[in-house]
């Protein structure tokens, strides 16, 4: 391949070292000699301070955009453009998506300019709570989607890299592809350098009265909780998680990344996520609940259920934490989650460990009972079947799930969509992480829908549970007010 013509183009990043250029050229030449590849990904090290700023700078509501960050772990992914979208609906959607993911992996060649655990293909996306979606508000979302983005920036505590993905059909020669790869790399570098200039935030808008937001739908809620308690007394199920949706007007063209920026600053030990399918609304939030993180055969998951507010003083905070840990109602609600996760993981695991008593997880607005669970997966266990088995945990569904499920549909007067579904990312080598998309909202330019739920057991008090949903709604509502 002749690199002379390319080297004359001052726009292209031929600042790559000679060795990398040599390996890249050879890799691309070889690609065009093989028949069985449809896609290729290219990973390069880059300098990037803040992937969210990069996403915001180039925000384009007409294309797929994705963000994921765990501020406490200094780990973030920003991505855009849908090179390849895998989607499915119905009871077997995890399985169908998994098969298509494997097909993509089998037909993709990967090049990496440096060795990194997360170089190569990364799929990003999520799943709705139920098997199907029907509400028009969710029209641009599907019941299960994994996307291979055209560009992705991944940053961990030491290092940043970019992965660029291409469909080989679009290139007639190796030279064409090499040019496109270098051009895309240059575009990403330019996007990053653009983030160093100051971004101007929209002026704060007048916000809807919080008191109205926190009163709307109260009577429906009390009726639903009382109905659920009656079913529990009649032994239809032992626990159900009921949620509410609250809708507020919005009048802002500001990209939803602004909201996410405020959330990540305040909820450092949460997973902050944003999915924009390329049209319609964006779904985003800051969730404290990890569904599962996979590092080869090691699986980390958790039970997070049982809540109380934060105290205003150290002493009040500690007293509330203590009240939460000894509350039979909350311990009961939590125990269903731990036991059920253990049962569901049993077919996939060699060993499984957790402490006998829950710890306390403190967020800025609320504290929860929390039991981290570690398991060693059996060999050859794939991520998506495990997710299918774990979702929905009784922290967002009910116990037993099959019995509680129809009552969620019957007692809630909105469609959950992706609220409380799994959202996250995974690579081709079996690593990745999915969180439970609670403390979230569906954000459009004119309206924002926020969601919050809580576990109902036999001795739940509808008023207290209502207050708990208000606490859980607060972060999203506060984050919106500055838009
Ligand atoms: C369903 C939600 O929270 C779950 C997670 C933690 C604590 C919960 C609780 O105490 O009820 C819920 O199970 C939500 O925030 O929408």
From TrEMBL:
Keywords: Isomerase. It holds the Pfam family Chorismate_bind. The keyword Membrane does not apply. Residues 219-472 form the Chorismate-utilising enzyme C-terminal domain. It catalyses: chorismate = isochorismate. InterPro entries: ADC_synthase, Chorismate_C, IsoChor_synthase. One of its GO terms (molecular function) is isochorismate synthase activity. Gene3D superfamilies: Anthranilate synthase. Belongs to the isochorismate synthase family. This is isochorismate synthase. It comes from Fodinibius salsisoli.
